[in-house]
Amino acid sequence: MIQNIRSVLSRSPSIFRELVEGAPPDAIEFHETPGAWSARQVLCHVADAEITDWKPRVELILGSDDDKRFTPFDREGGFRRYDGWTPSSLLDEFARLRRDNLSRLDELKITDADLDRQGIHPDLGIVTLSQLLSCWATHDLAHIEQITRSLVRHRAPDIGPWRKYYSLLSER
Predict the structure, then answer these.
(1) Residue 62 exposed, middle or buried by CB count within 10 Å (0-12, 13-18, 19+)
(2) Is CB count within 10 Å lower at the N or C end of the chain?
(3) Are 77 and 48 in contact (CB under 8 A)?
(4) Superfamily assignment of 2-169 in CATH?
């Protein structure tokens, strides 16, 4: 299980880079609906999560402290932390942080027994390390899909009648 999750986590920075690098600025800043995040905002979010969410929670679960309550995660905190950063800088930062976090995961030498250890999420209650790690990988995949969808929808006005062939462009 841990190898499968690590595989997803290790590929994510290059997937984000391939999706975003070279895209025009208006595509990177495009909001598919009011309130939806742009690709740049997603990059701010995933980079910030590397600092304030995933690693601290893994270490809390595996640590010796009796208090296993997670600090709430500010989903938009990265918007402030990385305000003004270019997409290229955000991609570099995310790749660096992810490399560091994967190195830390390797150092922790997580065992099958560790996967059952628990933490306390502020909204969800008791969660296992296995669930947290699976959520980390799923989080990456969901945001890869989000950026892909946004880039598809940004291009929609330019494709004319072919729009009818794309389910991502149909009204729901």
Answers:
(1) middle
(2) C
(3) yes
(4) dinb family like domain (1.20.120.450)
CA gap 105, 124 in Å, rounded = 24
Whether the per-residue pLDDT at 172 is higher than 60: the answer is no
pLDDT confidence of residue 171: 65
Half-sphere exposure of 89 (CA within 13 A, CB side): 8
3 state SS of 125 = strand
Average pLDDT over residues 91-110: 97
123-148 average pLDDT score: 97
DSSP symbol at 37: P
Please report, to the nearest 10 degrees, the dihedral formed by the alpha carbons of residues 96, 43, 155, 137 taken in order. 80
Question: In the block, which residue shows the tokens 């391939």?
Answer: 18
**Token pair for 121:** 């999420």
